[in-house]
Amino acid sequence: MDTLTRMRAFIDVVEAEGFSAAARKIGRSKALLSKYVRELEDELGALLLNRTTRQFSLTEAGHTYYRRASEIVREVDSLADDVRESSGDVRGRIKLSAPRTFADAPIGQSLVDFAKEHADIVLEIDLDDRFVDLVEEGFDLAIRISRLESSSLIAKRLAPFSVRICGSPELIAKHGMPTKPQDFARLPCIVDTNGRWLSNWPFKGETSDTISVSVSGPMEVNSPMVARAAAVSGLGFAILPDFIASPEIIGGRLVPVLDDRILQGGGIFAVYPHRRYLPAKVRVLVDFLAQWFKAREAA
Fold first, then answer.
1. What is the C-alpha separation between 59 and 49, in angstroms, rounded?
2. N or C: which end of the chain has fewer CB within 10 A?
């Protein structure tokens, strides 16, 4: 039994957060995985996992080993990917993190289209609105929708991203059309607690770069999809991603307001760790997404 096999078993157990879950995920027995990890610990002369019948945690040595072992395994897999790519045979598993907003919107179809076109690549998608730690949590790639902050990660911009403030025709008929940002302080608003602004909505100022308006209303929810439904029903105005608001605007169920006062400049990015060699399978996915969004913009 070679060290790399034991190393992979240890990584599988850590990322699945347990032997039973890892066994189910990769199709090996719990006893075999336990044997591999025990042999690895014997080889290293160090305890990597604290395990009881109810608890599972990494030791300090386990944290260090997991971080370095993950990098080594990725480099080995990347080398294999490069060889396969040179022969036109790209395969393997990609662990991808994406926000629920991305997957629930029409642009989530991009991931489905990729899976259909690349049958030899398993796309393991983890939907979570938090910013995951790609290296620590073992992700190959993340989709992020934001103004991207500087970091040690590599980012490829896939598409521009903008937001709209919208209200239903009935709401506007009842309360009137807002003519300046300050009007939202007295109007009913839907607060998306999953967004970066919460109840303090930013706008372009007339004499300063930005101003902030404190808003409130009948609903606070951590989902732009539910915020959109609330806005369509006339509960209040809502800040919505353009790709979520557009179908309702086109259908006349929502009306955009004060577009010229909304701060823009964000984007949809593919983000991956800074590595010497980007695995071929990840490069194939990033290139596919870039082309998918480019074709959508041109349509």
1. 6
2. C
Tokens of 228: 């959109």
Q: Which long-range contacts (CB under 8 A, 24 or more apart) does 123-126 make?
A: 123/93, 123/94, 123/96, 123/285, 124/93, 124/94, 124/95, 124/96, 125/96, 125/98, 126/95, 126/96, 126/97, 126/98
Query: Taking the alpha carbons of 237, 128, 124, 133 in that order, is the dihedral positive or negative?
Result: positive
- Spacing of C-alpha 299 from chain mean position: 25
pLDDT one-digit tens code per residue, 98-126: 998 888 888 899 999 999 999 989 999 99
Distance CA 87, CA 84 (A): 5
Between CA 238 and CA 231 the distance in angstroms is: 6
Residue with tokens 């839907």: 190
Q: Give the global pTM.
A: 0.66
Classify residue 154 by its DSSP letter. E
Any bridge partners for residue 189, and if so which? Answer: 237
